[in-house]
UniProtKB/TrEMBL annotation:
PROSITE patterns named among the record's database cross-references: HELICASE_ATP_BIND_1, HELICASE_CTER, SECA_MOTOR_DEAD
GO biological process, one term: protein transport by the Sec complex
Native species: Fructobacillus pseudoficulneus
Boundaries of every Helicase ATP-binding domain copy: 75-217
GO MF annotation list: ATP binding; protein-exporting ATPase activity
Record protein name field: Protein translocase subunit SecA
SUPFAM superfamilies tied to this protein: Helical scaffold and wing domains of SecA, P-loop containing nucleoside triphosphate hydrolases, Pre-protein crosslinking domain of SecA
Residues that, per the record, bind ATP: Q73, G91, E92, G93, K94, T95, D481
């Protein structure tokens, strides 16, 4: 509240200054950018210039776009400038709000000021329309970007004062930057200020999705099928779930069945690790992942559903083998697993920004999590016009069947009132089921879900007409602007009917928000029953007993099945069940974040090391090379307890020279074969071999480049293996038994241990590449390198 008062005081200052800018000519107003920048250069603090900068944008918005920001929009802009989440209801003009803080932040001249949109279309639409204002005021704007942009185009995009792009584009470009070999080719280098549009969708709903760049396919495994057959044969007591139903593992009887089915004594034995991994994946695919909720099967392919908006995500696969396990479960062709070249979660990506803020219509319900996890405060910005939408309290029934019948009655009433109706379901499968029921009642309707997405534009266009009935999943959630016809407005506006409580109050609110935009009339109501999955799985036992007793009364005709359960007691049951489910989701996001923090820490170390190599010089490469030689040779001698001629020969063939003459392998007597002698011999040999091969590259620049490539490649190959290992480790620790065991602790310990092993691997990779790479000098002097 205190903050809000402060912002109101700032807003007052802005409005006091405004007349002065209104009186300026266009030219004078345009000169303000340079004037403000000079003030900054001469020591003024950016925040102290905020009133002037905002006043400039307000006047420019008016002149260039013909839109004067409302007072509440100015307040929203101030909240964003100071790094808060501004909760601004749908349709209130968030796009315009962003112009004020973006311009002000970009005045400093630091690059890397972003408006992050939910999709490419919005980046282009908003970037093009709002970009006019920035350009008019003398700033540069970068918009969108496409996958096949050349370096120049990318550079221009990311070097603009203000950039409109999507979260995934930014993330992928950042990852690609860290796969390259030249610092000068990196484009996403500055993370100054970002406003994330629909921030709750990106940071909360999208918390479980990481961006992944896949590389080459791995060797195809044939365990998927057999593991799937096995887990399908299990009984209920062969596996159990964690309380929050996010994890599943084998019980004693399950483990016994594994032993019998695969005829092995100890599945935990190291030699069965790969089989065990596949059985765990099959268990998770069959008993955690749900068709219609997590994915759909279309034309023989498993397509994941985006939790944020219910759309399919073609080409996106879950990592670590779970995608393939689902394919086996659904009896479609098992695709090949690929190695991960780079991955980053949205949390890690956005945590890099010096200042982060966000806008959304729905954040207040989850303000605690935003504060705890991201240190972002949620500020509710009032609407410009009072809200007219009527949010009715839930209609609660005993049985699912009655609930559906009564919701259909509500649809019919909406049609009789000649209003548009939007019915929302929680999953694709529920929307299919509802569609059938509507057909049985002869109610014509449009079905909008992941399977009908191609007709989305047309469906939404029709959804605001009087008597139009639209049935949708969360696809009709964010950003869906249902425009009402005049007749629809006069008849009470859009009627939103929820057919079950969604996964959180925030998502319920998101759906309600489709109606009553910009002070229009509207209504929302949810139909729920004691049989709803959310209620059954998240309520205390007495609720089930009460339901049974009510069912008996209905059967005995002592109670009408259509009776609504109006008492506060049942309303509380609904709220509590949703809260319990929501808490499990929060916990699950925290878990993911904890896993991710470990991975991020390792990624940062690797990327920092890569950057150091890319910036490195001759001397630096020399140090690394010498270090590699020393470490690899010493490790070999430490690891082989009894150093033998055979072991040395094996080491030389595999790491130094594949056709080294056997007779030259250390001409000393067996008794004199000790560590020191071997180390000396190998050091000398590596020096000779290296000299011979490097002397062929006469050009110093080429030589440096070769060394840099060798080191980068060594890091990248080891990192790819580490990423692969971490993915598998995550699945494995989550699939290990016992409710009280803490997967994250095991993960942390193992991940750390493996990271140190990886460092050894990097040195070995460098060593081998130096010794074994074939250097081909072409006639024009260019060199080709064939790495081992
Ligand atoms: N100050 C203003 N004066 C007049 N019209 C405005 C103003 N601000 C925004 N609008 C108009 O309001 C409409 C909605 O704006 P916008 O799409 O930015 O809303 P939104 O908050 O992003 O909505 P959603 O949550 O649905 O994306 C647009 O047509 C825009 O031109």
């Amino acid at each position: 509240m205190f903050k809000m008062q402060k912002y109101q005081r700032i807003a007052k200052k802005i409005y006091q200054l405004l007349p002065q800018y209104e009186d300026m000519t266009d030219e004078q107003l345009q000169q303000q950018t340079a004037i403000l920048r000079t003030k900054l250069e001469t020591g003024n603090h950016l925040a102290s210039l905020l009133p002037e900068a905002f006043a400039v944008v307000i006047e420019a918005d008016k002149r260039v776009l013909g839109l004067t920001p409302y007072y509440v929009q100015v307040l929203g802009g101030i909240a964003l400038f100071f790094g808060n989440i501004a909760e601004i209801k749908t349709g209130e003009g968030k796009t315009l709000v962003a112009t004020m803080p973006l311009y002000t932040r970009a005045l400093l001249g630091y690059k890397g000021n972003y408006l992050i949109t939910a999709n490419q279309y919005l980046a282009e639409r908003d970037g093009q329309s709002m970009g006019k204002v920035f350009e008019w005021l003398g700033l540069t704007v970068g918009i969108g970007g496409s996958d096949d942009d050349d370096f120049e185009t990318k550079y221009r995009l990311y070097n603009a004062d203000i950039i409109y792009t999507t979260h995934s584009k930014l993330g992928f470009d950042y990852l690609f930057d860290n796969l390259g070999s030249e610092l000068s080719e990196q484009v996403v280098t500055r993370f100054n200020f970002a406003i994330i549009d629909e921030i709750d969708a990106v940071l909360l709903d999208g918390a479980q999705t990481a961006l992944v760049i896949s590389g080459s396919p791995k060797v195809q495994s044939n365990y998927y099928q057999i593991s799937d057959w096995f887990v399908k044969s299990l009984q209920k007591d062969d596996y159990e779930y964690s309380d929050d139903k996010r994890r599943v593992w084998f019980t004693k009887s399950g483990l016994l069945k594994i032993a019998q089915y695969f005829d092995i004594d100890d599945i935990y034995d190291q030699q069965y690790i790969d089989l065990y991994r596949h059985i765990v994946l099959a268990l998770q695919a069959n008993y955690l992942k749900q068709k219609g909720r997590d994915y759909v099967v279309d034309k023989g392919k498993v397509l994941l559903l985006d939790v944020v908006n219910g759309r399919t995500m073609p080409g996106v696969k879950m990592q670590g083998g779970i995608h393939q396990a689902i394919e086996a479960k659904e009896s479609v062709e098992v695709t090949s697993e690929t190695k991960i070249l780079g991955t980053i979660s949205y949390q890690s990506l956005f945590k890099q920004f010096k200042s982060l803020s966000g806008m959304t219509g729905t954040a207040k319900t989850d303000e605690k999590e935003f504060m705890e996890t991201y240190h972002l405060e949620v500020m509710s910005i009032p609407t410009n016009k009072p809200t007219q939408r009527v949010d009715e309290s839930d209609k609660i029934y005993v049985s699912n069947q009655t609930k559906i019948e009564q919701s259909i009655e509500a649809v019919k009433q909406g049609i009789r009132d000649r209003r548009p109706v939007l019915i929302e379901t929680g999953s694709v499968s529920m929307s299919d089921l509802y569609s059938l029921v509507l057909l049985q009642h002869k109610i014509p309707h449009n079905l909008l879900n992941a399977k009908t997405a191609v007709r989305e534009k047309q469906i939404i266009k029709d959804a605001g007409r009087a008597m139009s009935v639209t049935l949708a999943t969360s696809m009709a959630g964010r950003g869906t602007d249902i425009k009402l016809t005049n007749e629809a407005k006069n008849n009470g506006g859009l009627k939103v009917i929820g057919t079950e409580r969604m996964t959180s109050k925030r998502i319920d609110n998101q759906l309600r928000g489709r109606s009553g935009r910009q002070g229009e009339p509207g209504e929302s109501v949810f139909f729920v029953s004691l049989e709803d999955k959310m209620i059954v799985e998240n309520s205390p036992k007495w609720v089930r007993r009460t339901r049974k007793s009510l069912e008996r009364k209905i059967a005995d005709k002592k109670l009408d099945s259509n009776t609504k359960l109006n008492s506060q007691r049942f309303k509380k049951v609904m709220d509590k069940a949703q809260k319990k489910f929501g808490n499990a989701e929060i916990q699950s996001r925290k878990n993911t974040l904890a896993f991710d923090t470990i991975l991020s820490g390792q990624r940062e170390r690797i990327y920092t090391a890569r950057n150091k190599v890319m910036a490195g010089d001759q001397g630096y490469f020399e140090v690394i090379m010498t270090q590699s030689i020393r470490r690899v040779i010493e490790k070999f001698c430490d690891d082989s307890k009894n150093i033998s001629y055979e072991a040395i020969a094996d080491f030389v063939f595999n790491n130094m020279q594949s056709d080294y003459p056997l007779k030259d392998i250390l001409s000393v007597k067996k008794e004199e074969l000790n560590k020191k002698r071997v180390v000396d011999f190998l050091n000398q040999l590596s020096e000779d071999l290296l000299k011979k091969s490097l002397n062929r590259i006469r050009n110093a620049q080429q030589l440096n480049h070769f060394k840099k490539l060798v080191i980068l490649r060594a890091i990248d190959r080891a990192w790819v293996d580490q990423l692969d290992y971490l993915q598998q480790l995550k699945n494995m620790v989550n699939g290990r038994g016992m409710a009280q065991h803490k997967p994250i602790n095991e993960f942390g310990k193992e991940a750390r241990r493996h990271f140190f092993d990886m460092e050894d691997q990097i040195y070995t990779n460098i060593f081998r590449s130096m010794m074994l790479s074939a250097i081909i000098i072409k006639s024009d002097g260019a060199i080709d390198i064939e790495f081992p």
